[in-house]
Amino acid sequence: MRLGIAGGGSDLSPYSDMYGGLILNATVNLYAYCIIEETAENHIMIESYDADCFEDYPLKRCIPIDGKASLIKGVYNRLMRDYDIPLKGCRLTTYNDVPAGSGLGTSSTMVVAILKAFAEWHSLPLGDYEIARTAYEIERLDLGLSGGKQDQYAAAFGGFNYMEFLQNDIVIVNPLKVKRWIVDELEASIILYFTGKSRSSAAIIDEQKRNTLTNKTDSIEAMHRIKQSAVDMKLALLKGDMEEFAHILGKGWEDKKRMAGSITNPVIEEAFDVAMRAGAKSGKVSGAGGGGFIMFFVNPTKKKQVVSALKNLNGYTMPFNFTEGGAHGWKIYDTDTIQVLKR
Question: What is the pLDDT of residue 260?
């Protein structure tokens, strides 16, 4: 999963097509998992704990999209269409470390995980850019789901990344080499708080798109400032300027709230009030808004008291560490089969 640190929303079309987008994000040790087990059965078994779907489907090159486990079916249909993959029975299991709609890029991370699993299974020639681009096209074009472009690239590449979003869906990922002491200080200073409320980002994203298309001045100007915050935050991060980091984070949240009416709500505002009174310096909601996770920035000496204050609410804090690697995939062969082959 990823934390959106600065620039969030500027990767959305039509804004990125008209003005270009810039985003700074970083991945954390919360994951989406996909396990594929090849079977001798003449069907595909889907066990999707995140989508609450446990179904069997006939072994065909296209599975109907019926509202159940659409992400899995979207990946399967796309790969069967684009590559000469042999039809083989399988059991496909997926699950997440965090709830869907939590603002950490869960859906896109899952699509990347499924793609990576298929790439390992069938030895497909998919690098990080190809996996991210294919994941984006599956979600936005094949399935028609609203959203931006950053999540797929964050999941595929991993680490701290400064991303550029240009016209014609061109994305440039610039990995940042952040000093270890800076990463340690960030981990000591950031509280990741789940509001207890998941949300669908589609309505918020669609409102942001409408504001851009109708040339709503205050929303566009706010997005310009949000995009600039990615530039400023990159400098603060690389220098280890924590005061500036906290300032940009808070300023970005104030601008973000101008993008759509449902980005904040009483649950979010109460969490901010409690955290700030307890000593937090600033914060922002990760993702589109409306719920999910909030990042609070605190002085490490105040961290425990802020965490203690947040315990009085209905959500919970989530321990985390920043990670360097992107999507990982590997194979495990059946040991009984291997022993038979050796005889």
Answer: 76
